[in-house]
Amino acid sequence: MAEKRRHHRHKRRLLVRFGEKELLSSGFTVDLSVGGAFITSPQLAQLDARLHLQVFFDTTRFAYFEAEVRRQKVVPPAMRSVE
What we know:
Layout: E1 10-11, E2 15-19, E3 25-33, E4 36-40, E5 50-56, E6 62-68
């Protein structure tokens, strides 16, 4: 299947804290691009929710972003090591 994304995705695993008002949830990036990111987390944000993100590049460097949830993917626990 042909890639339809406008921006190339780069596989990176970075720690992310996020939330609608407070940064109460955490997860990791799977891939990043100029136009978006895929984040894996035990907490599921609502579709179309506007989130505040804190992305850690290392223990002392981080950046803040604002994002909108566009897609969700729920993976059964037995398949998480594969997916």
